[in-house]
Amino acid sequence: MNEQAALFKDKQLGFLIYLFVESVMFATLFATYIIFTPAPSSPRPIDVFEAKSVILSSVFLLSSSGTLIFAEKGLNVRESKQNLTGLGITLLLGLIFLGLEIHEFYKYVQEGNGLTVNVFMSAFYVLVGLHAAHVTFGSGWMILLLIQYKTMKQSYQLYTEKQRIFQYYWHFVDVIWVFIIILVYLPYLL
Amino acid sequence: MTIPFFGKSIFVPSDIIAAWILSIVLGAILFIYVMNKRKWPLIWEYMRTTNHRKIGTMYILFGVIFFLRAGTDALLIRLQLAQPHAAFWVFQQEKYNELFTTHGTMMIFFVAMPLLIGLMNVAVPLQIGARDLAFPFLNAVSFWLFLAGAILFNMSFFFNSAPNAGWTGYAPLSTDTFTPSVGNDYFVFSLQVSGLGTIFTAINMIVTIVRHRAPGMRLTRMPLFSWATLITSFLILIAFSVLSMGLYLLMFDRMFGTGFFSGDTGNPVYWQHLFWIFGHPEVYILALPAFGIFSDIISTFSKKRIFGYPAMVLSIILIGFLGFMVWAHHMFTVGLGPMANTFFAITTMLIAVPTGIKVFNWLFTMRGGVVKITTPMLFALGFIPTFVMGGVTGVMLSVAAANFQYHDTHFVVAHFHYTIIGSTILGIFAGIYFWYPKVTGKVLDEKLGKWHFWLFIIGFHLTFLPMHVTGLQGMPRRVYTYQWGDDLFALNLTSTIGAFLMGSSMLFVGWNLYKTHKHGKKVGNDPWDGRTLEWTVQSPSQENTFEPMPIVKEMDPFWYAKVSGEKLRTTNNTRPAPISVNTILPFCIAFSLSIMSLGMIYTWYLLAVLGGASAFLLFIVRSLTDERKAYDLKEGHSNE
Predict the structure, then answer these.
(1) What is the dihedral of CA B402, B404, B409, B415, to 10 degrees?
(2) Please, what is the angle between helix B426-440 and helix B375-398, to 10°?
(3) Domain A18-37+48-189 has CATH 3.30.70.120
(4) How far apart are CA B265 and CA B301, in angstroms?
(5) What local confidence, expressed as pLDDT, does residue B392 receive?
(6) Cβ B258–A25 below 8 Å, yes or no?
(7) Regarding the domain delimited by B39-634, which CATH topology (the fold level of the hierarchy) does it fall under?
(8) Contacts of B616 in chain A (CB under 8 A)
(9) For the purposes of burial, counting CB atoms within 10 Å of the CB of B357, is it exposed (0-12), middle (13-18) or buried (19 or more)?
(10) With an 8 Å Cβ cutoff, is B604 touching chain A?
(11) Is the per-residue pLDDT at B5 higher than 80?
(12) Average pLDDT over residues B113-125
C-alpha cells in the first residue's frame, strides 16, 4: 500500500505541474483577449454577449464540480452507486454545457460574428474555444473512466488514482471557466 | 533545375536535388550496414525503450546528426558571405533567408535542446540516486515528440518550402500575407510538436529531482548539474507554454484568417513580446545546464569541492528569475519608450552579477586544486574566457541608447554566438566527453579529443571575433551580400576560414568515435576519479542501478568515501522505483501527431483528423494497458 501511495504521489505532483503549464497557456490567451478587446471595429463585446446564455452554461458547468465531489465521496467509501451516479451526472452536465457552448458559437456565427470578423472575436474564439476543447476532452475521459469502473480489470486502488487525477483536471477546467466569466463576459455585461 | 513531373515540369533548386541524392545514398548505406550487421533487434529495442540512459543516448545521437545538418547551413552561409558580391551556388535572396532560418531554428530547438536534455537524461538520475526518471513512459513520449518535430522541420527543406522568416518568426513577415508558402506552417507545427515534448521532459525532471533522490541526498547536497536541471525545468514550464500559445495564435493568423499579428487591428509587436517572453528564458534554458556541467567537471578535475556552493545555487536561481524580466531588451528599437527601455536595460545589466559570481567561483575552485587537464576540463577552461567575452558584449548591448547602433548587425551575431557556443556547445562537448563512459562503457580518446578542442576553439574565435568589427562597421545580419567599397572583405574571409576550421574539428569527433569503438578498452565505474554518485554505478549504467541504494551524508559523497577509504553505506529500504516497460506506444503517438501536423500544414483536413483521432485512440490504449496493472498483480495486491 505504501508503494502504491508513493507512485501515486509522483503522478499527482506531475499532473499538478502539468496543470500549472496549462494555466500559463490560458493566462497568455487571457492577456491576448484583454489586449485586443474591444477592437476598434464592430462588433463590440456588448453587441455580441448575452447574459442568459452565459448564466445558463455557467450553472451547468459549475455545478458539475459539485457533483464530482459527490462522486468522490462515494469513491472514498466504495459506494459504487454514489460514485457512478455522481460521475454520470457530471458527464451529463458537461455535455449539456458543451451543447450550450456550441449553440452560443453557432448563434454568433449566424449573426455574422465569426472568427475573422475582428480581432476581438478572434481572441474570444481561440480562448473560449480552447476551453470548450478541454471540456470535450474531459467528457471523453469520463466515459473512459466509467468503462474502466464497470469492467474493473485493475485494483480498486489504481482506479481510484485515475479518477482522482481526472478530478484535478475537471476542477481546473471549471476554475478556468470562472476566469472566463470574470475576464471575458462580466466587464461587458454589467 | 527543371524536372518533368507527370507531364508538368517543375523547378527544383539544385541544392535540394543534391540533398535528396545525398540522403538516399546515405540512407542506402545505413540500410545495408544495418542488414549486414543484423542490427534490427537493437533498433527495435531502442524504439520501445523507456530507460533513461537509452533515451538520453538517442537524444544525443539525433542531436549530433542535426548538429551536422545545421552546421552545414552555417558553412553555406559563410561561403556566400566569403567575399563581396559573391554568388555561391543558389544561396542568395530567398534561399539565403531559408538558410539562416533553418540554421537558427535547428541549432536552438533540434541541436542544443536535445543534446542538453540527452545529457540530463543520462546523468541526472545517476547523480541523485534515482533508478530512472519518475515517468519513464512519458520520457519516451517526449523523445519521440522531439524527433517527430525535428523530422517534420527537415522535411520542409526537402519539399522546397523551408521556413524563411528567421528563427524568431517575426510577424507580419511570418503571416500568410507575406510568406504564403507552407514553409512557416512547418515552422509552427514542428516547434509545437517538439515543444510539447520539451514541456513533458521538464515535468519529468522536476518530479524526479523532487521525489526520487537517494536517502540523505538533500537539495543542499545535490550536484550542480542536477540543480541547474531543476531550475531550467521551471524555466521551460513557463517559457515553452508561452511559445506554444504564440504559435497557436500564429497558426490562426496563417491558416484561419484571424489578424492578431498583422492587418489593421493586429499588433506585430505582440508577437515580439510573446516570442521573447519565451525566447529570453530560452537563452538561460540553454546556458544554465551548461553552467551545471562545467561546475561538476571543474570540481572533479581540480580534485576540490566546488567553491561557494550556496552562492552557485543561488546565482542559478537568480539568473533563472531575472531571465523572465529582460525579454524587451531584444526590442529596444521597437519604440516601447524610455521608461520600458530603462527598466529592461537595468534588469539586463543585473544578470551580469550572478553570472560574474559563478565565473569567480569556478576560478576559485581551480585555485589551489590539483588541476588535471583532460578533454572535458579543456572545454571547461575554454568556456570561461569565451563566455566572459560574450558577457561583456552582452552588457554593451544592454545599454539601450548604444543598442540602436548595434541592433541587427553582426555585432549581435558575434555576441550570441559567443554566449551560446561559448556556454551551451562547449558545455555539451564537455558533457559528452565526461559522461561518455556512463553511456557506452568506454572513454573517448584523449589525444583526438584535444585536437577537436583546439581546432574548434581556434576556429570559433577566428569566425566570430571579426564579426564584432564588421558589425560595428555596420554590416547587417540576415543580408546575403555586401559591397567591395564596404571594406569588409578581409574580416569576412577570416570568418569563413574560421568556420571551416570549426567544421573540420567535427571530423576528429567522427574519427574519435570510430577509434574508440574499434580499439577502446572497457573502463571501470570510475574512470575520472569522480566525486558524485554516477561514478558508483556500472559503466555503461544498467537498468537496475543503485541496488542496494547508497545513503548520502554529505556533498560529493563518493569522493569523501574514497578519501576515508570506506564504502558508501547502503540500504535496501527505499521508495519504489519507477516501473520500466517496453512499449511502442510513444513512438506511435508521436507518429500520429506528425501525420496530424502534415494534414494541417497542407490543409488535408481528413488526414489531420485521422492523425488526431489515432493519437486519442492511443491515449485510450495507454490508459487501458497501464504498466501499473501488471505491476500490481505481480506484487500480489488483491482486488480488495
Answers:
(1) 40
(2) 150
(3) no
(4) 58
(5) 95
(6) no
(7) Cytochrome C Oxidase; Chain A (1.20.210)
(8) 140
(9) middle
(10) no
(11) no
(12) 96
Does B614 lie at the interface with A, CB-CB under 8 angstroms? no
Q: Which amino acid is at B95?
A: K
Distance CA A101, CA A116 (A): 19
Taking the C-alpha atoms of residue B548 and residue B568, their distance in angstroms, rounded to an integer, is 10
pLDDT value of position B13: 87
**Cα distance from N-terminal residue to C-terminal residue, chain A:** 53
Q: Which residues of A touch B260 (CB under 8 A)?
A: 32, 36, 119, 122-123
Gap from B623 CA to chain A (nearest CA, Å): 9
Best of B581, B618, B637 to mutate (most A CBs within 10 Å, chain A)? B637
* Cα separation, A26 vs A179, whole angstroms: 10
φ, ψ (nearest 5 deg) of residue A114? -85, -170
B234 touches chain A (CB under 8 A): no
Query: Hey, which residues does B10 pair with through a beta bridge?
Result: B3
The per-residue pLDDT for range A134-187, each reduced to its tens digit, is 999 999 999 999 999 988 888 888 899 999 999 999 999 999 999 999 999 999
Judging contacts by C-beta atoms under 8 Å, the chain B residues touching residue A41 are 264-265
B247-281 core/surface letters (b: 16 or more CB in 10 A; e: else): bbbbbbbbeeebbbbbbeebbbebbbbbbbbbbbb
Whether B395 and B327 have beta carbons less than 8 Å apart is answered as no
Single-letter residue type at B160: N
Confidence of residue B639 (pLDDT cuts 50, 70, 90): very low
Interface contact flag, A21 B199, Cβ < 8 Å: yes
Give the residue among B422, B300, B445 at the shortest CA–CA distance from B375: B445
For B117-131, what is the mean pLDDT? 96
Q: What is the DSSP track for A30-78?
A: HHHHHHH-S-SSSPPHHHH--HHHHHHHHHHHHHHHHHHHHHHHHHHTT
Annotated domain spans of chain B: 39-634
B177 at interface of A, judged by CB pairs closer than 8 A: no
Listed in sequence order, the DSSP H helices in B420-488 are 426-440, 446-472
Q: Which residues of B touch A36 (CB under 8 A)?
A: 260, 265, 267
Which of B206, B270, B632 is opposite residue A17, by nearest beta carbon? B206
Q: Where residue B263 falls among pLDDT bands split at 50, 70, 90? A: confident
Which residue in the block uniquely carries the three cell numbers 561518455? B436
What's the distance, CA A76 to chain centroid?
23
Among B144, B384, B166, B391, smallest CA distance to B272 is for: B166
Distance from CA of B460 to the nearest CA of A (A): 38
Structure-block grid coordinates of residue B105: 531554428
> By the 8 A CB rule, do B156 and B163 touch?
yes
For residues B500 and B490, give the distance between their C-alpha atoms in angstroms, rounded to a whole number.
16
Element (H, E) at B2: strand B2-5
Per-residue pLDDT for A69 more than 90? yes
Residues 6+ apart with CB under 8 A from B485: none
Q: Does B367 touch chain A (CB under 8 A)?
A: no
The DSSP symbol for B129 reads T
Give the number of beta-carbon pairs within 8 Å between A and B. 118
In sequence order, which residues have a C-beta less than 8 Å from that of residue B361 and are 6 or more positions away? B306, B307, B308, B311, B312
Q: Which of B199-213, B263-277, B620-634 has the lowest mean pLDDT?
A: B620-634
Q: Which residues of B touch A10 (CB under 8 A)?
A: 134-135, 207, 211-212, 578
pLDDT > 90 fraction of chain B, expressed in percent and rounded? 87
Cα B362 off chain centre by = 23
Put simply, whether the predicted model's pTM sits higher than 0.90 gets the answer yes
- Provide the b/e sequence for B620-634 (b: ≥16 CB within 10 Å): eebeeebbbeebbee
Q: Give me chain B's average pLDDT, please.
A: 93
